[in-house]
Design a protein that fits this description.
The complex is a heterodimer of chains A (about 325) and B (about 325). Chain A has about 325 residues and is an alpha/beta fold. Chain A has one domain: Rossmann fold, CATH 3.40.50. Chain A is about 40% helix and about 10% strand. In chain A, strand 3, helix 6 and strand 4 form a beta-alpha-beta unit. In chain A, helix 1 packs across helix 2, helix 2 packs parallel to helix 8 and helix 5 runs parallel beside helix 6. With about 325 residues, chain B is of the alpha/beta class. Chain B is built from 13 helices and 14 strands. The longest helix of chain B has 15 residues.
């Protein structure tokens, strides 16, 4: 397990990192169950296996920073601090959902946490992040806009346009590519002539780093380096986190495009299992600490489920609300 | 009230300059808006006056800079994005339709995108099929955005200000043949005008001619000719293409009982179709006969002048259509 002088991996911080990863894992395992029970419908994209990325990166952000995420964003929303009950209620399509049931699993938003979705157009969030960063730069604010996307986005024109703009205008944006190797069912080698996404970014003169996306401490260290540089006014930074999703692309995906042995091999490198083992080996935590984190996560998830279940449905009479803002409405910062 | 002569271009320019002076959050971004002075010279001299940060030349990345404008609007700015022509805006359609128009609803009302996107539209300058189309009805189809088409110098001067004050994405279509046109602009302290009402530009009692944008002056010219034949035309300027102001349309048709819609878009799936449908829904029993449409021919706009003219609505087509309706 890597370490960095920037990451102070004491017992408390270790428990925090592990606790957040376990919370995402337990939350999403429950989501899969609730999907089978037809409480959650539509598309559901699980993050299981990739938890170290959201958890590691978010350690480097402050409440003032902005987060732009993708349709696989439950983990990011949870670590960012969105109430788990509101996230789950959104997946249920309920009134207390973060988007009042208008968005669902793919479109979690929260103005209070500067969480800008939840974008289900691959690459669509990148120009948005560039613009948020541009606004900060023009208004002289020392904030970071952190933009998550998958490696599939690197094939989109919006990726290249955004890299160019961010570099050309020296914008305070941190790009985080979560490279899980597959754009839905298409392996990276089958879709990119250059499979290092970090090299794509480098070609725009953006300082880039590839990091082991299964190692939460390595991700945190790399994210801190990148965020510190962005905050200091050094322009954009790019992280490519090499990771893997253990579940299918979505609940509709029969997962026929990869070998079971490949999935099993990656599972042995899973972020929760390896970090837990490393912490135990180094006697930073005890087995009962991990059990306590699991119990805590289960309790949070149970309360989220109860909250979502108890929430009411939006009245159909309100169908057309929030299409346009009333004149005079002010945008939340 | 005193009035002065001004070109449409200068009206747009004055409106932008006023906004830039009045609000530090306003900035202009697009291809060649800075050093070049704007493809239609609407921002000539702005770079020198306001600097590179606020008069931002962009790479040829429509999706990138329109998306960046949307993001900047979310971040508290009031961007004016200029796209050279509606044809190029198709490269930014994803950001406009999938992000700007959906963000408020998808977030349950938490966010809104106060961005203004200006673009040239329409034929008449022999620029052929990739610079001449009128695709504003594609945008007018989409909930979550407002679509306006200033046809006069007064609207070019005044609608931008109201658009910038609106918390929603507003798309402004400026017909490319209008920039050099001169009109009378009444002097006012505040030029702001509404962006949600249609206007009667000429009153008449025999027939309603409903139009917008670059076709307004042609329609007014046709009305003038028809007057000589004793046909009194009421000319309605839609001004706002989304949301459509049904009330003014219906009121006019209730008076004249006959209607023609003049629209430079192609007939199939056009704004003219939408306007006709609304009149049929809301004023069917007030109509003396079928609604007629004068639209562009169903071809990509051709280059040769005579073909381009034949492909798009002209004064004589409007006159002929009105005479035919009156004869029925």
């Amino acid at each position: 397990m890597s370490n960095s002088s920037r990451v102070h991996l004491d017992r408390n911080h270790a428990l925090e990192l592990l606790g957040q990863m376990i919370l995402i894992r337990r939350f999403e395992e429950k989501c899969a169950e609730l999907y089978s029970a037809q409480k959650i419908r539509g598309f559901l994209h699980l993050y299981i296996g990739e938890e170290a990325n959201a958890v590691g990166v978010m350690q480097a952000l402050t409440a003032d920073d902005a987060v732009v995420a993708t349709y696989r964003e439950h983990g990011h929303a949870l670590v960012r601090g969105l109430p788990p009950g509101e996230i789950l209620a959104e997946m249920f399509g309920k009134s207390d959902g973060s988007s009042r049931g208008r968005g669902g699993s793919m479109h979690i938003f929260d103005a209070a946490h500067r969480f800008y979705g939840g974008n289900a157009i691959v690459g669509g969030g990148l120009p948005l992040a560039v613009g948020l960063a541009l606004a900060d730069k023009m208004q002289g604010r020392q904030r970071v806009t952190c933009c998550f996307f998958g490696e599939g986005a690197a094939a989109e024109g919006e990726f290249h346009e955004s890299m160019n703009l961010a570099a050309l205008w020296d914008l305070p944006v941190m790009f985080v590519c979560e490279n899980n190797g597959y754009a839905m069912g298409t392996a990276l080698e089958r879709s990119e002539s250059e499979t290092s996404i970090a090299r794509h970014a480098e070609s725009y003169r953006i300082e880039s780093e590839a990091v082991d996306g299964m190692d939460v401490v390595a991700v945190e260290a790399a994210a801190r380096r990148a965020a510190d540089a962005v905050r200091a006014g050094a322009g954009p930074r790019f992280l490519e986190a090499r990771t893997y999703r253990f579940r299918a692309h979505s609940m509709f995906d029969p997962d026929l495009y990869r070998e079971k042995s490949e999935i099993e091999a990656w599972k042995t490198k899973g972020p929760v299992v390896t970090f837990s083992q490393w912490l135990l080996d180094n006697q930073l935590v005890r087995p009962d600490d991990i059990a306590a984190l699991e119990r805590y996560a289960d309790d949070v998830v149970a309360r989220a489920v109860a909250f979502a279940e108890a929430s009411s449905w939006e009245p159909v009479e309100d169908l057309e609300r929030d299409v346009l803002a009333p004149v005079g409405w002010e945008v939340s910062q | 009230m005193t009035a002065r002569k001004i070109t449409y271009r200068d009206a747009v320019r004055e409106a932008m300059r006023e906004a830039l002076l009045a609000d530090h959050r306003v900035f202009l971004m697009g291809e060649d808006v800075g050093r070049y002075g704007g493809a239609y010279a609407c921002s000539k001299g702005f770079l020198e006056e306001f600097g590179e940060a606020r008069i931002r030349d962009t790479p040829l990345s429509e999706s990138g800079f329109v998306g960046a404008g949307i993001g900047a609007a979310l971040g508290g700015m009031r961007p004016i994005i200029e796209i050279m022509t509606v044809n190029f805006s198709l490269l930014a359609l994803d950001q406009i339709v999938n992000t700007a128009a959906t963000l408020r609803h998808m977030s349950g009302g938490q966010f809104s995108v106060p961005v203004v996107i200006r673009m040239a539209t329409g034929a008449g300058r022999q620029l052929a099929a990739q610079h001449s189309h009128s695709l504003e009805c594609w945008y007018a189809h989409v909930p979550g955005i407002k679509v306006i088409a200033p046809a006069t110098v007064g609207d070019a001067r005044g609608m931008l200000k109201t658009a910038l004050a609106d918390p929603n994405p507003v798309i402004i279509f400026e017909h490319a043949t209008l920039y050099n046109e001169t009109g009378e602009l009444a002097e006012m302290d505040d030029y702001a005008v509404d962006i949600d009402r249609a206007r009667v530009r000429r009153t008449g009692s025999d027939i309603s001619l409903i139009t917008y944008g670059g076709s307004l002056s042609k329609t007014l010219a046709a009305a003038e000719l028809l007057e000589r034949d004793g046909i009194g035309c009421e000319v309605v300027d839609l001004r706002t293409l989304r949301p459509l102001d049904d009330a003014v349309l219906v009121q006019s048709v209730r008076k004249t009982h006959k209607a023609i819609v003049v629209d430079e878009g192609w007939r199939s799936g056009s704004l003219a179709a939408e306007v006709s449908a609304r009149m049929a829904e809301q004023a069917f029993f007030d109509l003396d006969g079928p609604i007629a449409r004068v639209c562009s021919a169903e071809v990509p706009v051709p280059y040769a002048r005579h073909l381009e003219q034949a492909a798009t609505p002209q004064v004589e087509n409007i006159v002929a259509a009105a005479q035919k309706v009156m004869r029925r």
